[in-house]
């Protein structure tokens, strides 16, 4: 079983293409199904620890995997039953069912079991699940002590993570060959429980990946405050927000943090405060300018944003500055960090999954787009995408976005690729939240950033 971190995320079309390539190289659909079902059975046997397993099988190849797994469990002497609501509709699933020698219970009457293996629908679910099937699955999932899904939980749309049935989460999802968008995008991701990937020897590639811990380095002996990165945070109408951003940048390894034009008084002494000036932004030692948290939307804010856009330094644009941006582009690196409302205000309604939306927004704007949320998607105009799937829900509190802008600013000022800076910043932010535990406020979050960084050295 493999953790998701850093793996390519594949759509149904990409998975089918990979499967077709494996078949062209000599594999067969039945052979792939045998691999998948047996790999599932091996994990289920470990997790079930001797408890009876009920396998619920659907009409497609996901169901086929279920019949193979049931037969493998039975051969291994494990107590196992099978239930279904429909005959197999593919040749491979039909052949797999023919090799299951036990009884098959009608789904609606199936007795509860301590372990439920959901092989009802995989990536082929295309429309809302029927109410009767949904009700039966709900009863069986709720009645099990442990529920495990084959590939994806039944009732989610694999390619965009939409929900196609109102069902409770399973405990474990065994993704076959690669993670799919449904494993990382909400609302489907919260239905998956712990996701682990089973290697079925089908080679997958792609430019969309699950976030992984960044590989950071310690400062070299010759390091000084400017080489570590100078972050200039532009303040405005609500000084507390810019103070959070500046504090987060200072705790994310920046060598020097400058807060320009903000009237806040409670600030660490290490953060240098100055009046706002366009000249300060243009200093070539500035590695990143962060503008937006608490900026306001009045004339002064507009003037400050104009100066930032013209200063020629790498930019992180957040909050109010996103509203004032009005489609303008800059020549240098620019990272924009909208949440869903800001994203729609900036780019209008873009169709497709959150991954596709973020990519399209990056392509149109030429900026690195950090599309925030419970599933944060970071996209570059060149097609690279990273999904940060498991930020703690405790992050849904005021000021955490200001902290994120500061972390990304520090990574950007440290140099290197702006896309990596944005992805690394999002990971460190989520890790700091995991370290902060429950019910933290945004001010507490920054204090956990050094430990998060320590985990990446
Ligand atoms: N890709 C690989 O390398 C491997 C994948 N495996 C497994 O195969 C499934 C995907 O199998 P597929 O047959 O394409 O799809 P499903 O099993 O998920 O479901 C398709 C069937 O379900 C019907 N369907 C779809 N929506 C509904 C609905 N709302 N209600 C009832 N029935 C529905 C669909 O019928 P249509 O009318 O839409 O045609 C199909 O009959 C993948 O997830 C893996 O588990 C391999 O076994 C190993 C290699
Ligand atoms: K399933």
What does this structure look like?
The longest helix has 20 residues, at 29-48. The protein is α/β, with parallel strands linked by helices. It folds into two domains: 12-210, Rossmann fold, CATH 3.40.50; 225-454, 3-Layer(aba) Sandwich (UDP-N-acetylmuramoyl-L-alanine:D-glutamate ligase), CATH 3.40.1190.20. The protein is elongated, with a radius of gyration of 25 Å. α2 packs across α3 (61-75). The protein contains 17 helices and 17 strands. It binds ligand LZDS7PUF and potassium ion (K). K(+) binds at residues 62, 118, 154. GO terms for molecular function: ADP-dependent NAD(P)H-hydrate dehydratase activity; ATP binding; metal ion binding; NAD(P)HX epimerase activity.
Keywords:
457 residues, alpha/beta, Rossmann fold, UDP-N-acetylmuramoyl-L-alanine:D-glutamate ligase, ten-stranded mixed β-sheet, seven-stranded parallel β-sheet, 39% helix, elongated, binds ligand LZDS7PUF, binds potassium ion, ATP-binding, nucleotide-binding, Carbohydrate_kinase_pred_CS
CATH topology of the largest domain: UDP-N-acetylmuramoyl-L-alanine:D-glutamate ligase
How many strand segments?
A: 17
Could you report the average pLDDT, rounded to the nearest whole number? 96
Distance between the termini: 25 Å
Our estimate of the beta-strand percent is 15-25%
| Global morphology | elongated
**Strand order in the sheet with the most strands:** 8-17-16-15-14-13-12-9-10-11
Q: Which architecture name of the largest domain does CATH use? A: 3-Layer(aba) Sandwich
The CATH homologous superfamily of the largest domain: Ribokinase
Main sheet overview: 10 strands, mixed
What are the distinct ligands in this entry? ligand LZDS7PUF, potassium ion
Q: Rounded to an integer, what's the Rg over CA atoms?
A: 25 Å
Q: Helix tally?
A: 17
Structural class: alpha/beta
Helix content: 25-40%
Low-confidence region ranges: none
Domains (count): 2
CATH C-level label of the largest domain: Alpha Beta
């Amino acid at each position: 079983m493999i953790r998701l971190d850093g793996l390519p995320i594949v759509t149904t079309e990409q998975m089918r293409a990979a499967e077709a390539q494996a078949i062209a190289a000599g594999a067969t659909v039945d052979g792939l199904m045998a691999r998948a079902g047996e790999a599932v059975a091996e994990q289920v046997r470990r997790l079930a620890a001797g408890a009876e397993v009920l396998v619920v099988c659907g009409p497609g190849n996901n169901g086929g995997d279920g019949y193979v797994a049931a037969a493998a469990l039975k051969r291994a002497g494990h107590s196992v039953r099978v239930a279904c609501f429909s005959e197999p509709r593919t040749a491979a699933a039909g052949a797999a069912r023919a090799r299951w020698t036990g009884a098959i219970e009608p789904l609606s009457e199936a007795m509860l079991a301590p372990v439920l293996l959901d092989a009802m629908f995989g990536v082929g679910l295309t429309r809302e699940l029927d109410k009767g099937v949904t009700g039966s699955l709900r009863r069986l999932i709720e009645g099990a002590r442990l529920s495990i899904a084959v590939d994806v939980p039944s009732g989610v749309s694999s390619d965009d993570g939409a929900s196609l049935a109102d069902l409770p989460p399973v405990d474990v999802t065994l993704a076959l060959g690669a993670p799919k968008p449904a494993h990382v995008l909400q609302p489907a991701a919260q239905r998956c429980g712990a996701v682990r990937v089973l290697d079925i020897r089908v080679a997958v590639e792609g430019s969309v990946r699950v976030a992984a811990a960044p590989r950071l380095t310690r400062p070299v002996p010759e390091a000084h405050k400017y080489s570590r990165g100078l972050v200039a945070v532009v303040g405005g109408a609500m000084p507390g927000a810019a103070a959070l951003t500046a504090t987060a940048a200072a705790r994310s390894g920046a060598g020097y943090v400058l807060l320009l034009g903000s009237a806040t008084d409670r600030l660490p002494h290490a953060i240098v405060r100055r009046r706002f000036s366009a000249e300060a932004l243009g200093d070539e030692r500035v590695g990143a300018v962060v503008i937006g948290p608490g900026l306001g939307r009045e004339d002064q804010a507009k003037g400050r944003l104009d100066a930032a856009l013209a200063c020629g330094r790498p930019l992180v644009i957040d909050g109010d500055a996103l509203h004032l941006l009005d489609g303008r582009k800059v020549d240098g690196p620019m990272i924009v960090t909208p949440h869903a409302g800001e994203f729609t205000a900036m780019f209008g309604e873009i169709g497709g999954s959150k991954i596709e939306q973020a990519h399209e927004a990056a392509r149109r704007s030429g900026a690195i787009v950090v599309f925030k949320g419970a599933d944060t998607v970071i996209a570059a105009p060149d097609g690279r995408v990273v999904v940060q799937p498991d930020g703690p829900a405790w992050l849904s509190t005021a000021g955490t976005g200001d902290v994120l802008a500061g972390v990304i600013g520090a990574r950007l000022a440290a140099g290197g690729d702006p896309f990596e800076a944005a992805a690394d910043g999002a990971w460190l932010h989520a890790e700091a939240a995991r370290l902060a535990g429950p019910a933290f406020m945004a001010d507490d979050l920054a204090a956990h950033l050094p430990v998060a960084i320590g985990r990446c050295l």
